[in-house]
UniProtKB/TrEMBL annotation:
GO molecular function: ABC-type transporter activity
Subcellular location: Cell membrane; Membrane
Record's bilayer topology term: Multi-pass membrane protein
Pfam family, one: ABC2_membrane
Keyword rRNA-binding listed: no
UniProt keyword annotations, A-Z: Cell membrane, Membrane, Transmembrane, Transmembrane helix, Transport
PROSITE patterns listed in its UniProt record: ABC_TM2
Every ABC transmembrane type-2 domain range: 23-249
Descriptive protein name: Transport permease protein
Domain of life: Bacteria
TM region(s), chain numbering: 21-44, 56-78, 99-125, 137-161, 168-186, 224-246
Length: 251
């Protein structure tokens, strides 16, 4: 119970930091919405996919973009705690040590999932009409939570190892690169052969394809298992690495 109580208390501290930061809200919520509007109404006219269909086509990629933008701030704020000596102060207090990392992960999960829901509601306002039933919505939410958790643990690792808070969020550009070289914004069939092979066999594509099929077609695709598997593998690897680095830093 102590771990849970301490995690909740520290999560409240982090949520206050996140919600009071105007630049965080602008970057995490407003920028993905602007990206969505730009792709639909500026670039969408040049696509062979009808604009009405294209709205649903890019929604999964925009949701992942929202998560990636958000976890960059999680890495930034974690690194500030490390470099400013906050971690050492916490370790001198009678709190569960595992609650320190857990609070950063939980804050990231709450904040970024909420941001993604806001972006999704914005998609509904511009004409996105999902066909998902209750089961498909639940699976979509579960996958979004898994993706956010996986990205959060990646952020935790980079936040711990970065030398400064300015470089802690650099990893997000790598994730964005994966996002753009995937099926997120254009069909992989339109990519050059070399990029197409990479796009079809990297983690973002089955995740995006699964969310797209769930939301726009209202059915569970065959890739759903692969999408969850990718998320699970990333969580296990980066959680283990983060905990190892954390223990070494706190010795």
């Amino acid at each position: 119970m102590r771990v849970v109580e301490d995690t909740i208390a520290l999560t409240g501290r982090m949520m206050k930091h996140m919600t009071r930061s105007v630049d965080t809200i602008v970057t995490v919520v407003l920028m993905p919405i602007l990206f969505m509007l730009a792709f639909v109404y500026i670039f969408g006219g040049a696509m062979t996919i009808p604009i009405g269909t294209y709205k649903g086509f890019i929604i999964p990629a925009i949701l992942l973009l929202t998560v990636i933008s958000g976890v960059a701030y999680s890495a930034f704020r974690l690194n500030k705690d490390v470099t400013n000596g906050i971690f050492e102060r916490f370790h001198s207090m009678p709190i569960a040590k595992s609650a320190i990392l857990n609070s950063h992960v939980l804050t990231s999960l709450i904040f970024n999932t909420t941001s993604a829901v806001v972006v999704l509601l914005s998609g509904l306002l511009i004409g996105f009409r999902p066909k998902a039933g209750l089961l498909e919505w639940l699976v979509s939410l579960g996958l979004l939570l898994m993706v956010t958790l996986a990205a959060s643990w990646i952020a935790i690792l980079f936040g711990l190892v970065a030398k400064s808070s300015e470089t802690a969020s650099v990893f997000s550009y790598l994730l964005m690169g994966l996002l753009f070289i995937s099926s997120g914004f254009v069909p992989t069939e339109t990519l050059p052969n070399a990029l197409r092979g990479f796009a079809e066999h990297q983690p973002m594509t089955p995740i995006i394809n699964t969310m797209r099929t769930l939301l726009t077609d209202g059915r569970i695709p065959s890739e759903v298992g692969l999408a969850f598997l990718w998320c699970g593998v990333v969580i296990l690897i980066f959680q283990a690495l983060s905990i190892t680095v954390y223990h070494k830093k706190m010795r």
